[in-house]
Amino acid sequence: MIIHWIINPGLAVNELFLGLNTPKVTLVERAGEKPFYQRSFIPCPHCGEMHSGLKYSGRNKTILWNWFGFYCDNCGGIIPVQRNLITLIILTITFPVWGWFRKSLKRKWLEKQPERYKNLNLEVVEIPKKKWTKNWLKSGLFFALLMFVSMQIVFPLIERKEITQRSILIGIPIWLICGLCYGLTVSWWMNKRGLATSKNNMPT
Ligand SMILES: [Zn+2]
Q: Please, are residues 22 and 1 in contact by the beta-carbon 8 Å criterion?
């Protein structure tokens, strides 16, 4: 997942415009009946607090606008995020433009964070199967649209390449299939149960 995050150029669009990020370090409980999304934790490198993966979620409206990282509501620090390769290149090239405002932007962003984490819903609820199907379809289609827009429109515009009817028509089915595969994989992964016995699978 981390490698995908680094090399997929389409994700740079998400990262730069929406502040959709992934933490550098995620800890996962290996054993247990719980699905993956309930077994993952995001550690804060400043205070050591283990944040539930549910804290940074669509449900809590905390998954977007995390340009500077994930806010730790325990110590007020910022948990570092994994940058996408294209994001890094774009940020480096445009540094002379935004570098001047970096500190004030970061300060303003940080001031707004405590408010966002006041009314968190960390309750674990079993999501019915029907909803999962709807969810993976939705995330698959969203991923397809994002990839289509960035790969067939945004990047050709940046590279000053022609956008033809042909490239659009070829792009639609390709990204639709990729998107649906992506949605299915992520949904399967998020629901994956942990290893059956904890005794034999303890890290050595
Ligand atoms: Zn912290």
A: yes
Cα–ligand 1 centroid distance for 152 (angstroms): 40
Ligand 1 geometric centre to CA of 78 (Å):
7
Q: What spacing in Å lies between the alpha carbon of 123 and ligand 1's midpoint?
A: 21
Q: What predicted TM-score, i.e. pTM, was given to this entire model?
A: 0.79
Residue type, 129: K
67, with CB counted inside 10 A (0-12, 13-18, 19+), is: middle
pLDDT tens for 78-118 read 999 999 999 999 999 999 999 999 999 999 999 999 999 99
Question: How far apart are the CA of 11 and the centre of ligand 1, in A?
Answer: 27
